Fold this sequence. Notes:
Layout: H1 12-19, H2 22-25, H3 30-46, H4 52-70, H5 83-95, H6 108-145, E1 149-154, E2 157-163, H7 164-188, E3 191-192, H8 208-214, E4 219-220, H9 224-229, H10 233-259, E5 267-268, H11 287-310, H12 325-348, E6 350-351, H13 353-358, H14 366-375, H15 380-388
Amino acid sequence: xxxxxxxxxxxxxxxxxxxxxxxxxxxxxxxxxxxxxxxxxxxxxxxxxxxxxxxxxxxxxxxxxxxxxxxxxxxxxxxxxxxxxxxxxxxxxxxxxxxxxxxxxxxxxxxxxxxxxxxxxxxxxxxxxxxxxxxxxxxxxxxxxxxxxxxxxxxxxxxxxxxxxxxxxxxxxxxxxxxxxxxxxxxxxxxxxxxxxxxxxxxxxxxxxxxxxxxxxxxxxxxxxxxxxxxxxxxxxxxxxxxxxxxxxxxxxxxxxxxxxxxxxxxxxxxxxxxxxxxxxxxxxxxxxxxxxxxxxxxxxxxxxxxxxxxxxxxxxxxxxxxxxxxxxxxxxxxxxxxxxxxxxxxxxxxxxxxxxxxxxxxxxxxxxxxxxxxxxxxxxxxxxxxxxxx
Length: 391
């Protein structure tokens, strides 16, 4: 039975449209919703709504539910609509009327906000670790090949001498900045919305600071309207941090797609990282790099999808917000997978020093020739004109 069940049956087609795939997405939130429910039950015990024994029973069953979820044995049905209904039904089945008490002093609106923030916190922490791994792996790559020189390009044409060190460290520096973006997003969501109810508080004196502490939040998100208005706003901030990461992976993949071409051959991908052709037996295709490159645009589209969904909504909860869940989850999933496969690529990527050296043709040193004349006292513009006549 739905948590909002009335004395009439919802039209089946309308129900199917409203629920959509949300119950499937909510499967990811079971553990986090149970964790928040444990904190909520303890708070209800603290303020005298629940007896100590009742709190213990609820916590025991919620812990049991977490283990069932980890084992893949707890499934949310379409009829249940969402994770919140599924959990409350399980509690009621196990504990009778006690299970019906868990929803005291909360709404599904603050319930889902809390579960999502716990989920985001863990996912962003995973992303942060993968970015740190990228930095470490790239630094190792630079230590191995950094002294090798290769052409630098502007306008997709040879410009000036560069090096593997300069190339690799550009991504190290950028990813280090991306860590700041992740930390900002983590700081933003580090406030507990639990206890804000549907968006206007609850008519009970509750201890929101206590649940915030139990759940590891730095502070309470005080204003209940802002708690609801922050849904989508916080998600778009997280996705923006993810697009910064994906932008760098896109740039690196774009470089490697070109620089692993036989016509360049500066870098070499292991054969086991390349696919073949169904008609051309000689092909070794860098599909992994091409999809890595494309995934940036997918995550950007998810960011704008969220921003478009939340625009023009009046203050408070609106069902439109349900549709921010999928792009948010997909954005996190794609970013984590992309970082993981990039780190794998970097561990196996090789540099062909011979091809790099061959590419350092005489014209690439033209600017150095200009500055050699400058060091001899020739005005820069005159030196520039003199050398330009050679090329």
